[in-house]
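Write out the bound-state structure for manganese (II) ion.
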Amino acid sequence: MKLKIAVLPGDGIGPEVTNQAVKVLKAIASEFDHTFSFKTADVGAIAIDKYGDPLPDKTLDLCKSTDAILFGSIGHPKYDNDPSAKVRPEQGLLKLRKELGLFANIRPVKAYKPLLDKSPLKKAIIDGTDISIYRELTGGIYFGKKELSEDGNTASDLCEYSRIEIERIAHLAFKAARARKQKVTLVDKANVLESSRLWRKIVTEVAADYKDVDLDFLFVDNAAMQMILNPKQFDVILTENMFGDIISDEASVIGGSIGLLASASVGETHAMFEPIHGSYPQAEGKGIANPIASILSAAMLLDHFELYNEAELVRLAVDKSLKLKITTPDINSEFDSITTSNVGDFIEDFIFNPNDSNRN
Ligand code: IPM
Ligand code: MN
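---
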């Protein structure tokens, strides 16, 4: 298969982890006789520094003309502490999602056996957890009208949803549940918010097309509690933009490190793959950033193009690296000298020689 892939490394640890994912995709291409071509472009704080724009036209055009996008991370502390900054790195990511129509963000959460003792949660609670979060990504409070009064003392962000925005992601979530444990949990705040009541109504209507899938509802505050009390109860979680943002960071605690969580953002015509972690500027350039989230995002890219054997091999290599503790310090206190690229090299090598007996 021929694939054109845009690589947007972004800020902080983005470039280091994305390099490892590209390395892995190149190994897959060579092992399975695919032609993957890569073109890199700037996004985020680095693009503001160079061009004064977090998503330069050149970057957007490249993304529009490729089959898939591999995204690193964006953000820089100098913007976080400056509420008056008019141009912010995050605007680049939000605009990209909107322009490419990436309305569904899929975030798998798993408790990896070798890492069960890395989570602050009890083993018995997390063992066996396997959740797929379907987060709506181009609507809601993130994209509603924003206002700041002239005197600067009142501000508002509108949370708006329309039928079509809810229906299209609901269908994806139900289809996914069909191939999993046949359960969708809608997370909302329907006891307070009108937009949540619309979600409940429409998702209930959509559920009628999927009689083989159970639908239940949880208020987001309760869902946040259930996520750490009993995460195994969940199969597919369907939710709006901001609740999905919050609950997926919370869910990352189950895996033992946010450095493990991958995501796919898909729409009608485009697809982007990115780790859910941020730019982690404190770790930049130190070789300690965990590349697994980015590498697993590359595996989701392969799945997206139905290259299932290829994706499976990447996941097998990741599992092996975790088992052998070829991992960065966030999940490895014993061998804290293993670097970001050591992990990438191990996974690359596994792809070339999956049956190497010297690896034990
Ligand atoms: C994420 C991030 C983004 C979001 C930020 C960087 C805008 O936290 O992808 O989860 O809030 O969607
Ligand atoms: Mn987030």
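---
Residues 119-255 form a domain with the Isopropylmalate Dehydrogenase fold (CATH 3.40.718.10).
The chain has a mean pLDDT of 96.
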